[in-house]
User: Fold 6-phosphofructokinase from Mobilicoccus caccae.
Amino acid sequence: TTRIGVLTSGGDAQGMNAAVRAVVRTGIHLGAEVYAIREGWQGAVDGGDGISRLDWDDVGSVLHRGGTVIGTARCREFRERAGQLAAARHLLEHGIDRLIVIGGDGSLTGTDEFRRNWPDLVAELAREGQITQEVADAHTSLMIAGLVGSIDNDLVGTDMTIGADSALHRIVDAIDTIASTAASHQRSFVVEVMGRHCGYLPLMAAIAGGCDYVFVPEDPPADGWEDDMCELLRSGRAAGRRDSIVLVAEGAHDRHGTPITATQVKDLLAERLGEDTRVTILGHVQRGGSPSAYDRWMSTLLGYAAVQEVLEATPDSVPHILGVRHNRIAQIPLVEAVQQTREVARHVERQDYEAAVTARGASFGE
Ligand code: F6P
Assistant:
């Protein structure tokens, strides 16, 4: 029987459970066995209870649950050769040489590195007598598929990542909630939004939440932004607006790379406009809770596609991420997607924002 391992790695995201469920049930439907690797790569490194078979019913009642029921972690040991040797040995104990990894770009890069090292790791394990030559010969390559699990929506090549839509819903709900208390008191609120180096969540939330001002990493404000922002908010008040809401991405900064923080914006509004201002840091509320309908169906379709991908893969296959392009499930070359994502980050670091936006919008073969 073909055996598939599934793991979630890096920060959790709503919809990961839907993907795991789809992987398990599609795998069983197509005649394979599916194994959970628990707590991210840690389960593979540790072996024992870290790897266990999942049956159809084991993934019942998880579709609507946030987080990941098989656990996640950022595993340091897996970055070292000793950790990778242990992981390969434990996977082979279960006859697993096909893997579906649900995680961010770091997890996906780590997985591809492991895939490239695999023949070497297997040869070393056989040489040292930790596995038989027969096992080594039967599993000469590792076949992988990646799903992007991250609320940040920061991977080039896919329109959406698992969890981004749910996080956006959570943020917009919070903005609506804040707006009512803000309006009652005629207060201003500065809301810090997650997304690491990516402005997707704050930008979309600002539009959907009808906010007054937003700071995102990819489009830092020009010098003198303090005056512009205050003027805009002042005129909003003058026009009768009862609430003012400013969103600040956690990765926001000015044109010189100096961070723009929620507290700094709050102080500005208080000092220059005399506004009664509060800061709300949404934090991990954004990453928790039930996945949206979109995240549930997208993750289900992606999980299904990922199983097909690993079952059809051959040792020579190019590893893919399964993502969404133009509202269709698409195969995206993993290495290029990660490289281009890093390219975007480099442009942002060098403050070449036009190049960053172009690189983010770059498509594969279109
Ligand atoms: O990548 C997801 C994310 O929630 C980011 O938006 C945020 O910067 C980071 O993870 C927070 O990480 P942690 O959960 O380790 O505090």
The mean pLDDT is 96. The pocket of 6-O-phosphono-beta-D-fructofuranose is lined by residues 11, 104, 150-152, 194-196, 250, 287 (CB under 6 Å). The radius of gyration is 23 Å.
